[in-house]
Amino acid sequence: MTETWNTNIINGILRQLISESTPSPTAQCPYKYAVNSTIIQHAGGARSVSGGDDDSASVTSQARRGMHSACGGYWNAEKDGMWAYKHTLKDMDVVVSIIWIGI
């Protein structure tokens, strides 16, 4: 389902960006957009982590993944930019980033 969710997220954001930034229905959108969507599933339940051959060193912990993402650009700061947002749900995070470049 993640492929469908990402496609729906990206297409919905692109439609809204173009609609909101185009001055009239006959005008051309004054920006180029790039939208990225990443879905990170939280691993559920407890997970056992062993400290080696000694089973007594095993630790049970909540399994959860960490993530760091970064993006940079060189452009005209008056017309171009980027924005990112992380939405946390019970069993997943959705990270969306948008880049726009003035035409």
From TrEMBL:
Name of the protein this chain belongs to: Dynein light chain
Lineage, uppermost ranks: Eukaryota, Fungi, Dikarya, Ascomycota, Pezizomycotina
Membrane-crossing segments per the record: none
InterPro entries xref list: Tctex-1-like, Tctex-1-like_sf
Pfam families xrefs: Tctex-1
GO CC, alphabetical: cytoplasm; cytoplasmic dynein complex
GO biological process: microtubule-based movement
Organism: Orbilia javanica
One term of GO molecular function: dynein intermediate chain binding
